[in-house]
Design a protein that fits this description.
elongated; mainly alpha; about 100 residues; about 0% strand
Length: about 100
């Protein structure tokens, strides 16, 4: 129905993040989602938290998160803030698409 997001739109959105900090935000969020499916208590999984710190928080990592997200606790508030940031990117993308469509009419 109307208002539903298609798989094609999601794939296009993820592709639009390539080469930006948004790609790291999405990848970190996706890693957290995958870990949550396999780990009962994510806060206690030291290996996974070490991975997140090494990949997304380390100073020289090519996948480093934006500064506003690096200060957050990977076992706590990071996941919600990543989702907020993805929603922001999503809104930007679809506002741009809607503006382009209107200009073509």
């Amino acid at each position: 129905g109307s208002g539903e997001i298609s798989r094609q739109e999601v794939v296009a959105f993820i592709a639009s993040l390539r080469g930006t900090q948004g790609e790291s935000v999405y990848n970190c969020w996706a890693d957290l989602q995958r870990a949550r499916k396999g780990v009962m208590n994510l806060a206690l999984d030291r290996y996974f938290l070490s991975y997140v710190r090494r990949i997304y928080l380390a100073e020289r990592s090519p996948h480093r998160l934006p500064a506003t997200l690096r200060a957050l606790n990977p076992a706590g508030d990071l996941e919600g803030k990543l989702l907020d940031q993805l929603r922001h990117y999503w809104r930007q993308r679809f506002e741009l698409l809607n503006t382009q469509k209107r200009s073509l009419l």
